[in-house]
Amino acid sequence: MLNQATRVHRVFHALGDPTRRAIVEKLSYGPASVSSLAGPLAITVAAVVQHLQVLEDSGLVRTTKVGRVRTCRMEPAGLSVAERWIASRRSLWERRLDRLGDLLAEPEEK
Questions:
Q1: What's the pTM?
Q2: CATH class of 4-105
Q3: Where are the domains of the chain?
């Protein structure tokens, strides 16, 4: 089982590429075949398969193959890894900024 830091790294690495983000965006509307993903991206099917492998390794996408057609779908649980990481950072910074606001609101001492 991958540790949390490794999972977070893989998700952000996968989402760091604009082509992979475009694939994730397309799949957010529903399952799609590899060839239908390749069309609007103007890249080869082989290149899409490589990007999909990174997305699968990160847990963001799942693919199934029936006959000659490989169908891809989003794995929503994969996004929860990034969501939890961002939420914990947001919480930390909100607390820090609240403390700073409280400090700045205190009347000055002479």
A1: 0.77
A2: mainly alpha
A3: 4-105
